[in-house]
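We modelled the chain as a single entity of 357 amino acids. Its sequence is:
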Amino acid sequence: MANTLSGPCVPPLAVPVLLDRGRSLCMPPLREAVARLAAPIDTVAAYHFGWTDRHGCPASGDGGKGLRPALALLSAEAVGAGSETGVPGGVAVELVHNFSLLHDDVMDGDETRRHRATAWTVFGAAQAVLAGDALLALATEVLLDAPDSSTASAADAARAVRRITTATRRLIDGQAQDLSFEQRDRVTVAECLEMEGNKTGALLAAACAIGAVLAGADDRTADALGRYGHDLGLAFQAVDDLLGIWGTTEVTGKPRWGDLRRRKKSLPVAVALADGGPASRRLAELLADPQPRAEEDGKQLAVRADLIEQAGGRAWARDEARRRHTGALAALDEVPMPDQIREYFVALAEFVVVRER
């Protein structure tokens, strides 16, 4: 495929092409990186990515949307480089993202991801954690190898490593905050937004800046692209929070009401608890029960979901996704770039706020 997509940009049609391109260009080096791992960790990682079944036989599982690699390629093109310059960045952010998913599934006790059993339920928690650790180490290796596999200089590769490691630290901060919130009766909206900015916004910011950094762009340009990614991440997380309560397993590949079962203080919940009305007070009473009932069923969880909606949590989170979408587009105005590349960034931002999974 050519370095830039050709033809007029029609956002609804452009998005699948952008995502497919990100996957097709980044998948071979991603597989090569995972192949460096020793057995049995290579098998655990390959299973998690959907490349194999639990026995190591080839499979065609859902490997994810590929949003971050697509953004990394566009980031390089935004500053005049070819998409291949952004490939090491796309691979690195995908490795870090999947490191976080492997660990999150263990910490949250999730048994389903991408419509099949999570890696820890198949191989055990210890192997899943080690696989996540290995992917994180590979991300740094891939970036440091960038001068050998792309047009990036050694100095720019080092700058990219700094971006990805800072984003990883913030991602871990956000996960720690998220876990701690589950032990609290209340979390403020501001605390929730800070957590989500760390947990989701930081890595998407890195994805949107890393291609430009590998292409030699200055920090001002990379930071502006990072702000687009940060707001896009908050929009993405707001939608994810909505799906975590109201999404269906058939669409999302995750258990229905999974966030409610774990009593996660996601954005809709934090907003609802801050409302103070009758529905808000009843929700607070249910969440304050220190002994969750083992017999909690779908009907009881549906009641909680309804209370959150009555207290305004669902509408506020939906509006927040749109507000962050607007902020992301405003950040693009700070970066001179080809009109077509700008339209692709716009199309991906729209995809984030209207997605169903």
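As a brief sanity check on the tokenised model: Residues 9 and 340 are 7 Å apart (CA to CA). Strands lie at 112-113, 116-117.
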